[in-house]
Specification:
The complex is a heterodimer of chains A (249) and B (851).
Chain A (H helix, E strand, L loop, with lengths): L1 H4 L4 E10 L6 E11 L4 E5 L6 H8 L7 E6 L2 E2 L5 H11 E4 L11 H5 L1 H5 L6 H11 L14 H14 L4 E5 L7 H18 L3 E4 L3 H4 L4 E6 L2 E7 L3 H15 L1
Parallel strand pairs in A: 3-8, 3-9, 6-7, 7-8
Antiparallel strand pairs in A: 1-2, 1-4, 4-5, 9-10
Helix pairs in contact in A: 6-7, 7-8
Chain B lengths: L1 H10 L1 H39 L5 E5 L14 E2 L2 H7 L3 E7 L1 E3 L1 E2 L15 E4 L9 E6 L7 E5 H7 L6 E5 L3 E12 L10 E4 L1 H8 L5 E2 L1 E6 L5 H11 L4 E5 H49 L1 H10 L3 H40 L13 H27 L18 H24 L4 H53 L1 H39 L4 E4 L12 E2 H8 L4 E14 L2 E8 L1 H4 L7 E4 L8 E5 H7 L6 E5 L5 E10 L8 E4 H4 L7 E2 L1 E6 L5 H12 L6 E4 H7 L2 H35 L1 H10 L3 H42 L8 H27 L3 H5 L3
Parallel strand pairs in B: 6-11, 8-10, 18-23, 20-22
Antiparallel strand pairs in B: 1-13, 1-14, 2-12, 3-13, 4-6, 5-9, 7-10, 8-11, 9-10, 15-25, 15-26, 16-24, 17-18, 17-21, 17-25, 19-22, 20-23, 21-22
The chains are: A alpha/beta (249), B alpha+beta (851).
Chain lengths: 249, 851
């Protein structure tokens, strides 16, 4: 009952994205309708070319759909200007990319506070301390990214994503470049943000082990939703992926 | 390897465009300077050849007192013409009188501008003996008729039948009866020419009867000019010579060359050199980036099996292509610049025959080679670096500069800078003519040290300069500052290009300010009169820019005028050397001009004495009573003694004679300045107005009160400075290109970072601001550096000048220096326009794509 009253953190309604024109047109997304509930860790999975990254980009306001609507909470993104979208990303959305998350000329502390610095706001010190505590980087604050390992860099990215106290965090293959141990650690942090801080995390991944850390997995194939799995295990995910692959073939 | 290189070049053509433009601009300047020199040379050649085209031989005095183009020779007896005509082989011989006269236009103002001299003479109808052709009307008869050139007629709004005045310097009412062309042109290079009849010319343009300037001879068919000249020489008295028309043209041309053309050429080529230097730095920074970006590619090539030499030649081949493309474009652009500069000349009154530009193969080759050599030279070090890259680099992400042997560079740069400084200071503590050379050498070494030091100080200095940015613009400012600091070699190269341009501008500004201050101080100190009357043009005396003495007499009749005394300028041979001299009336000059005599007094100079400046006396080793040999303009030799030594050289120059010594021997007596002292209590403004009214009939010379006259003493320097600034704007433009280039490539390199920033919430406006701030920071870095270097060198130059010339002032033009800093910042903003726009418009998704 509660879930019906709460609006979804992010919503896509009949979302379509077409690249190119005429004969060379590619339908990356084909009338996708999906909801991503609050305080949940959702994974989006699918074979390459399924449109999962495109879906995330549209949800996050990084890309414009060809048709359909995108909602962040109650706010429809289609009517916003570039500056408004930018401010939205700054204040209400957190990002973690697969690699190259950090600015090499800024220190760890500055990278974490980046969205806040961009908006000219005075960072909330106690919140930043909490966030830094969660990712356990208190001893690395003055270092430059080049002095950190891959796993540590991703943790800084997580801290930054949390810094502005966003409504939703989007993660694009966050464990893609990490070894299995750092990857598992990172997924643990992401889980923590959901269970302890009440964040909403939407993660795009192709790794079944990573998806298994999520509360539910939404599958995408050929630009369309292909079902979802709540509380999946890695095996179940693998099976489902195989099915999707066979369907394509 | 070559097809790969060419393919790469084409793919990157947009990025290389910036470099091509930078080199193009530098080469354009060089090509323009060289072409202008060639064109002027050829044009003057043509002018002078036309002037003597039909003349086979010229009979003239063998003595010459001044070596200039307008140098007057003593006159020869007119009776020689009869003897000349009797020589076998002579087809025709005509006496020719060359003098100077100012013709007044219908508005009462003298016709002619600053450049060419205003000449007059007798009309020669024989087409073989005169380049002037009657285009309308008839030849002059009687004493008061003249033929003038078409140009002068147009400028002065005169036509056949107009009655006007010629200042010869005596005022002569004349009627225009004919208009002439010089060959097919409207005038001799823009110089006004007034032709009297022979009788009129003899009356007004010579001082003694029966004298002419030369006799022009045409040879009978079959007789060569050389042979005729030889025959004539045998019948001519000593002191009179016969030279062929060709020889005369050569002499005139070489005089023009040494007086004017070669100095102009050197001036232009120096500026072209500066432009090329700035272009070299601009390219250096761009090349460095391109090579760094292609480290991965080079490494890949190496893994795939390309040898080091192949990679090296690949990069050099690129440089060669860029250099060639830029040089060719620059050559074309240079022709445009030459046209522009030619137009500048026209505005000064030199109407060159519209024969178009002369493009000599030598200049073309030099320009092309210079451009290519500079580009390839600049690319050698990055090319070598690229070839040394290890194949493993292909797999790494590093885009930052290697820390490198920074300390070695810093030490070398510091050593050079200190050495240069020491040489400059050592030079200044010396004396004599060597001072300038030593100081110049020190300046070069200091600049070299400065340049080497650049990358070593780039990080700390941009850090310091950029500190307020963080407070002022938040994280955008911080990012800009860190970005500038991150690649010091690149930042320094781009900044150095601007620094050199700024340093040269500052150098001239500071030096000129000191000169102007010295001039103004000098005039303030020495001019004690109330009103000054001065003529336009290149001084008074022979070149026809003088004030009639009759005017001086009429000024003395104006109520309130107590003393009128002026300066008559000319050239004579003093102690064996050609020198500018000034003649004064010793009894009255003291009332209006204080020459500050150290020994002796001007007032008591007798007819056989001269006064010299302290500087001249030191230079020549003269003292009070020293005997000096003089050769006056009419060839007379006199032996005089030094009767006074003075220090104030601003208005009267280095050598002063009493007018009683000068007047009998000069060809035409005009004053270059007339000074007036009023009786105490007289209203200065009223007297000035009265004098101005009187001036109306004498060609309207400039009448100024004390303050205005002092102020105008600074004008020649200001004019020179104006020209310098126009030329230097180009160097600055090239430097700005370099900064824009560097920034563009840096933006491209940071595509992913910028994408990340935009994703995380940096607006487009913030992105533009970030790039712009970095650009301004780099520009200000270069500007401040150039300002410091330029100010120091300007001071050193002023001091060196003080040693050699007796100037003793240093003026720091604070306002202008602040303006230069502001302009530097503006240059940064301008340079950032395109890169900032591009950064803001980066397609977000492409930038953050993981592939």
């Amino acid at each position: 009952m509660e879930t019906l009253i709460k609006t979804a953190a992010a919503r896509a309604v009949a979302l379509t994205k077409i690249y190119g024109a005429g004969e060379a047109a590619v339908r990356a997304l084909d009338r996708v309708t999906a909801e991503f509930p609050r305080e949940r860790f959702t994974a989006i999975m699918g074979p390459s070319g399924s449109g999962k990254s495109t879906l995330m980009h549209c949800l996050a306001g990084l890309d414009q759909p060809s048709s359909g609507q995108v909602f962040l909470g109650d706010l429809e993104l289609g009517s916003l200007s570039d500056t408004q979208l930018t401010v939205l990303r700054r204040e209400r959305v957190g990002f973690i990319f697969q690699s190259f998350n950090l600015l090499p000329t800024l220190s760890v502390a500055e990278n974490i506070a980046l969205p806040l610095l961009l908006s000219g706001r005075k960072p909330d010190r106690s919140w930043l301390d909490t966030v830094i505590g969660i990712v356990r980087l208190g001893d690395r604050l003055s270092h430059r990214p080049s002095e950190l390992s891959g796993g540590q860099q991703q943790r800084v990215a997580v801290a930054r994503a949390l810094a502005s106290q966003p409504e939703i965090i989007f993660a694009d293959e966050p464990t893609g470049n990490l070894d299995s141990r750092s990857g598992a650690q990172l997924l643990g942090f992401l889980r923590q943000t959901v269970s302890e801080l009440g964040q909403t995390v939407v993660m795009v991944t192709h790794d079944p082990a990573a998806a298994a850390a999520a509360d539910s997995v939404t599958f995408l194939a050929d630009g369309r939703i292909a079902g979802d799995l709540p509380h999946p295990g890695a095996d179940a995910i693998l099976d489902r992926l195989k099915q999707l692959g066979e369907r394509e073939a | 390897m070559l097809p790969v290189t060419m393919k790469n070049l084409w793919a990157r053509r947009r990025r290389l465009t910036g470099m091509v433009v930078a080199i193009g601009l530098g080469v354009a300047f060089l090509a323009g300077a060289l072409t202008l020199g060639d064109t002027l040379s050829a044009n003057f050649n043509q002018l002078f050849s036309t002037a003597t085209s039909g003349i086979s031989v010229v009979v003239r005095s063998a003595t010459t007192v001044s070596g200039g183009v307008t140098g007057d020779r003593p006159p020869i007896p007119a009776s020689l013409a009869a003897a000349v005509r009797r020589v076998p082989g002579v087809a025709a011989a005509q006496p020719s009188i060359t003098g100077a006269a100012e013709l007044l236009g219908s508005d009462g103002k003298a016709i002619g501008k600053l450049g060419p001299p205003r000449s007059a003479g007798n009309w020669i109808s024989d087409p073989a003996l005169s380049p002037y052709r009657l285009a309308a009307g008839r030849a002059p008869q009687g004493l008061h008729e003249v033929v003038i050139d078409r140009s002068a007629a147009t400028t002065g709004k005169l036509s056949i039948g107009s009655v006007t005045t010629a200042l010869t310097p005596a005022l002569v009412r004349v009627r225009v009866v004919g208009l002439a062309t010089f060959g097919t042109a409207n005038s001799f290079g823009g110089a006004p020419y007034t032709a009297f009849s022979l009788a009129g010319a003899q009356r007004y343009l010579t001082t003694k009867p029966g004298q002419v300037s030369a006799i022009e001879v045409s040879a009978a068919p079959g007789v060569s000019p050389g042979t005729l000249a030889g025959r004539l020489d045998r019948v001519l008295p000593p002191g009179v010579q016969a030279i062929t028309g060709t020889e005369l043209t050569q002499q005139n041309l070489s005089a023009l060359n040494s007086e004017f053309l070669s100095a102009l050429r050197i001036f232009l080529v120096i500026f072209a050199g500066i432009a090329l230097l700035v272009a070299a730095f601009s390219i250096a920074s761009t090349f460095g980036i391109l090579v760094a970006q292609r480290t991965k590619e080079a490494a890949l090539l190496r893994t795939v099996g390309a040898t080091r030499r192949q990679v090296l030649t690949g990069v050099l081949a690129e440089a060669l292509t860029v250099g060639a493309a830029g040089s060719i474009l620059g050559l074309l652009g240079g022709l445009g610049i030459a046209e522009l500069l030619k137009g500048l000349f026209d505005s000064f009154g030199f109407a060159l025959p519209a024969a178009g530009l002369v493009v000599s193969p030598g200049s073309v080759i030099v320009s092309l080679v210079a451009g290519i050599v500079v580009t390839v030279g600049v690319s050698i070090i990055p090319a070598v670096r690229a070839s040394r890259v290890a194949p493993l680099e292909a797999l790494r992400e590093s885009a930052a500069e290697p820390a490198g042997p920074r300390r070695r560079r810093a030490i070398t740069g510091l050593a050079l800078a200190v050495a240069g400084l020491a040489v400059v200071l050592a030079g200044l503590s010396g004396s004599g003519n060597k001072v300038l050379t030593v100081v110049g050498l020190g300046a070069v070494v200091l600049t070299a040290g400065f340049v080497v030091l650049g990358p070593a100080v780039a990080r700390p200095v941009t850090g310091a300069l950029g500190r307020p940015l963080a407070a002022w613009r938040g994280v955008t400012g911080t990012l800009a500052r860190r970005s500038a600091q991150r690649s010091p070699r690149r930042t320094a190269a781009a900044a150095t290009a601007l620094a050199i341009g700024v340093a040269v501008v500052t150098l001239f500004t500071v030096y000129a300010a000191s000169l102007r201050a010295a001039d103004i101080n000098g005039v303030t100190d020495s001019f004690t009169g109330d009103i000054a009357i001065s003529a336009d043009g290149f001084g008074g005396g022979g070149s026809g820019g003088g004030i009639s003495l009759a005017f001086g007499r009429s000024v003395s009749k104006v109520p309130g005028v107590r003393t009128v005394s002026g300066l008559v300028k000319g050239q004579a041979e003093v102690g064996g050397r050609s020198a500018d001299v000034t003649a004064v009336i010793p009894a009255t000059i003291g009332a209006v001009l204080d020459l500050r005599p150290v020994t002796g007094s001007i007032r008591t100079l007798t007819r056989d004495q001269i006064a010299v400046s302290q500087v001249e006396a030191n230079d020549r080793g003269w003292r009070m009573g020293s005997r000096v040999g003089l050769v006056l303009p009419d060839g007379t030799r006199e032996s005089v003694t030094v009767g006074a030594i003075y220090t104030s050289r601003n208005l009267a120059g280095d050598t002063v004679l009493p007018v009683s010594l000068w007047a009998p021997h000069t060809l035409q007596l005009t004053a270059s300045e007339i000074f007036v002292k009023l009786a105490p209590g007289t209203n200065v403004a009223a007297a000035q107005a009265a004098i101005t009214r009187a001036a109306a009939g004498y060609g309207k010379p400039t009448v100024e009160d004390h303050a205005a006259f002092v102020a105008s003493a600074g004008k020649p320097v200001s004019m020179f400075l104006g020209l310098v600034y126009v030329l230097l704007v180009l160097a600055i433009v090239i430097a700005v290109f370099g900064i824009a280039n560097t920034l563009s490539l840096s933006v491209y390199e940071r595509t992913r970072e910028i994408g990340l920033l935009r994703a995380v919430g940096e607006t487009r406006a913030q992105t533009r601001s970030m790039v712009r701030l970095e650009s301004v920071l780099v520009s200000v870095f270069g500007t401040v550096g150039g300002l410091g270097l330029g100010t120091f060198l300007g001071w050193a130059l002023a001091q060196a000048g003080a040693k050699a010339e007796g100037l003793a002032t240093f003026a720091l033009p604070g306002g202008q220096l602040v303006l230069i800093v502001i302009l530097g910042a503006v240059a940064g903003i301008v340079a950032a326009i395109r890169p900032a726009g591009r950064a803001a418009r980066l397609p977000l998704l492409a930038a953050i794509a993981t592939e």
